[in-house]
Amino acid sequence: MRILIVGCGRVGSRLAIEFVAEGHRVSIVDQRQEAFRRLPDHFPGQLVLGTGIDEDVLRSAGIESADVFVAVTEDDNTNIMAAQIAQAIYQVPKVILRIYDPERAEVYRGLGLTVICPTRTVADMIEEQVRQHRPARVSG
Amino acid sequence: MYIIVVGGGKVGYYLTKTLVNEGYEVFLIEKNPAKVQVYRDRFGAIVMQGDGAEVATLAAAGAGRADVVIAVTGDDEDNLVICQMARERFGVRRTIARVNNPKNEELFRKLGIDVTVSQTNVILSIIEQQIPERPFVHLMALRHADLAIVEAKVSQDSPVIHQPIWQIELPPEVIITAILRHGELIIPTGQTVIEPGDELIVVTKQQREAELRELLTGPPA
């Protein structure tokens, strides 16, 4: 598959490395050159310097032929706009984005995007751990 | 009418000031606390510090009863999300977004923003209208119908000259609505003959503009 990732932070770079190892064709976009240092030397994917909300940048990263689009910059609104460009303009078959704000995540899930909300997910996991915890001693 | 303005830069500031003077009920949301302090001194309690893309902020600003939300921050991604949140979450019927990168106008409209304002495009169109020798000028885009009104000067090289309009093979979805000839306005019929130097006012589907341009001003040099 052709996978386009916007945001070469910890999550984006990790995904890029894993997808390449699985044999996918990966291009990754970031507006900071230094972000690409998170990738190994001779990384076989395509690196594109620029913002993920600019159609020219996305086109040079191959959005027209992408099977999967992933938006994982640090900024919720950038991810939302990039994902909507991929969905509404380029009809990328699978569009996945990260939104930290749970309220915003809910709204855009309702608009047909695949939204991952780490805030909600982490809070749920921690709550679950707390609920499973059986105190060894009952204080009182 | 209740209007929420998000973004207290120069545009947001003067917009708020003008709307207040016009007698509208206005509320301004700005992120930067220092600016909020200054604007409070000027406008009073209608200014709030907060992130206009956040539900809590919009709720506190009374977005549920707002007639219009106008997002005029310097970041297009923020303006887009502010308008979409206002519409999807609070049912605001009319949303207006400032578009900093003119390329985003089309996208924003596709994504359901009612009105987009691009300073770059506004200034560009003013420049185009002020330069008399331009043979083809885009006068106005009519958003919803995807229509444009253009002014075109018919050149000596145009294949349409000395022909009545009914004989001209215009692109589909194009209508010549008026002709300016030697300072006189002609409302054309099918019999009207096009002369070189005529200035045509044409209503066209936006995607036909390039075809029309070539037809009226001659093939590109």
From TrEMBL, chain A:
Limits of the RCK N-terminal domain: 1-123
One cellular-component annotation, GO: plasma membrane
Any one GO MF annotation of this record: potassium ion transmembrane transporter activity
InterPro entries: K_uptake_TrkA (IPR006036), NAD(P)-bd_dom_sf (IPR036291), RCK_N (IPR003148), Trk_Ktr_HKT_K-transport (IPR050721)
Transport found in the keyword field: yes
UniProt key word NAD: no
Any Pfam family: TrkA_N
Domain of life: Bacteria
Keywords: Ion transport, Potassium, Potassium transport, Transport
PANTHER family in the record: POTASSIUM CHANNEL PROTEIN 2-RELATED-RELATED (PTHR43833), TRK SYSTEM POTASSIUM UPTAKE PROTEIN TRKA (PTHR43833:SF8)
The protein, known as: TrkA family potassium uptake protein
Organism classification: Bacteria, Pseudomonadati, Thermomicrobiota, Thermomicrobia, Thermomicrobiales
TrEMBL record, chain B:
The protein's name: Trk system potassium uptake protein TrkA
RCK C-terminal domain: residues covered: 137-218
Pfam families associated with the record: TrkA_C, TrkA_N
Record keywords, A-Z: Ion transport, NAD, Potassium, Potassium transport, Transport
Species the sequence originates in: Thermalbibacter longus
Gene3D superfamilies associated with the record: NAD(P)-binding Rossmann-like Domain, Regulator of K+ conductance, C-terminal domain
PROSITE patterns (UniProt xref): RCK_C, RCK_N
InterPro entries: K_uptake_TrkA (IPR006036), NAD(P)-bd_dom_sf (IPR036291), RCK_C (IPR006037), RCK_C_sf (IPR036721), RCK_N (IPR003148), Trk_Ktr_HKT_K-transport (IPR050721)
Domain of life: Bacteria
Keyword NAD: yes
Domain RCK N-terminal: 1-117
One example GO MF annotation: potassium ion transmembrane transporter activity
Claim: Transmembrane is one of the keywords in the record: no
One GO term describing the cellular component: plasma membrane
